[in-house]
Design goal:
- 54% of the residues lie in helices and 0% in strands.
- With 373 residues, the protein is mainly α.
- Among the domains are: 97-198, Cyclin-like (Cyclin A, domain 1), CATH 1.10.472; 207-324 and 331-370, Cyclin A, domain 1 (Orthogonal Bundle).
- Helix 5 (103-120) packs antiparallel against helix 6 (124-140), helix 6 (124-140) packs across helix 7 and helix 12 crosses helix 14 (303-319).
- The chain is globular, with a radius of gyration of 21 Å.
- The two termini are 37 Å apart.
- Residues 111-196 form the Cyclin-like domain.
Length: 373
């Protein structure tokens, strides 16, 4: 489904370009110039050893790509990577301390937002847009601890408006969920304040944005593995990662790439072939990372990629404790804040992906080599 949506988006883009060429569409000269001349020759303004996004000039793909759809697909990918990079430049490592907030307070808020999203059934994308807005606001503005949940409520309202045509939850209902700690007027005022803080520039990529791109690089996926399982695993891991503060410094594209890296590694672990007969095993033939995956994710097999994958792996291991209804330890500093995402993806409408053998049958020893710290 994700690939079909990307292909349709590429075709619409081609029609737009043809319309511009025929002068049938009115478009700003600056926008037309960008569409006409951009070839992917983008360089980061400042060196970042953490989020090392890689893009190659589109001219390099002109001879190997057989369709205009794929070339336009790469234009879309490059644009999303550029937007992703510009967002992470806003990251402020001192955002919580300057507002007298703590990582546990952030984890508690984001865990609550996951439960709100599941209760109202709005898209998970809206949830991630909302959490991104919360982080961006604290990166820029000091926020008193007693108003932190208010920022989350206002972010939910904005996130739903930005991602779905369905009406957002009423302000009265959202305030009720906070035990009427805040009034509807306070939520409206905070929403307006957030809009002005961001200069009404709200749309940035989230990890879900890059799932469709990444699946194109999964050429070695065994035939008996359903792509829906991969997509749901990604979404589950993304939700689990919301409560982990250390992941806030990483770009959305890197989070998606690290999730794919971890899933590829877990697929290799489920093989039960005899040790002497591994040559024909479809799971052992899966490489840890390929040039194709690097090209469609924008990230090579770097230390940062492995570190993020290892962090996600630790969170999945901690969530395994919920399988026996025991209280997890503090392996990643989030504790019980992982419960909301686990319960959400243990339901039938999510194919009970949180209980899938791929994520419940591995141990820390299986991912220890990913730890580069």
């Amino acid at each position: 489904m994700a690939n079909a949506q990307l292909l349709a988006r590429a075709k619409r883009g081609i029609l737009t370009m043809k319309g511009v060429a025929r002068k049938d569409l009115r478009i700003l000269p600056s926008t037309y110039e960008l569409m006409r001349t951009f070839r992917g020759r983008w360089r980061r303004k400042s060196r970042d050893a953490v989020n090392d996004i890689q893009m190659h000039p589109l001219d390099e793909y002109a001879e190997i790509e057989s369709t205009m759809e794929m070339l336009f697909f790469r234009r879309i990918l490059h644009y999303e990577l550029m937007r992703d990079d510009s967002l992470i430049l806003e990251y402020n490592s001192n955002c919580l301390s300057m507002s007298e907030l703590t990582p546990s307070m952030r984890a508690t808020l984001f865990n609550w937002l996951i439960r709100v999203q599941e209760y109202y059934k709005f898209p998970s994308e809206a949830l991630h847009v909302a959490t991104t807005l919360v982080d961006r606001f604290t990166w820029r503005r000091m926020t008193r601890p007693e108003k932190y949940q208010l920022v989350g409520v206002a972010a939910v309202v904005l996130g739903v408006k930005l991602t779905t045509r369905k009406p957002s939850p009423s302000l009265e209902d959202l305030c009720y969920l906070t035990e009427n700690t805040y009034s509807t007027e306070e939520v409206q005022y905070k929403e307006e304040k957030m809009l002005k803080t961001f200069g009404y520039n709200l749309i940035y990529p989230i990890p879900h944005t890059f799932i469709g791109f990444s699946l194109i690089g999964f050429e070695d996926l065994p035939e008996d593995v359903d792509a829906r399982v991969i997509i749901l695993l990604c979404r589950y891991i993304f939700d689990q990662g919301l409560t982990e503060l250390s992941l806030a410094q990483y770009a959305a594209s890197l989070k998606c790439a690290a999730t794919m890296y971890l899933i590829r590694h877990l697929l290799r672990l489920i093989c039960q072939c005899p040790l002497g007969d591994l040559t024909n095993c479809p799971f052992h033939s899966i490489s840890r990372w390929t040039d194709k995956m690097a090209g469609v994710t924008g990230h090579r097999e770097t230390t940062a990629l492995k570190r993020v994958a290892f962090t996600y792996g630790l969170m999945l291991i901690e969530a395994q404790f919920f399988l026996n209804e025991t209280t997890p330890g503090l392996m990643t500093g989030c504790g019980s804040s992982l419960r909301a995402a686990f319960k959400k993806y243990s339901r039938d409408n999510s194919l009970r992906i949180a209980r899938h053998p791929l994520v419940k049958n591995f141990t820390i020893a299986d991912i220890l080599h990913l730890d580069t710290t």
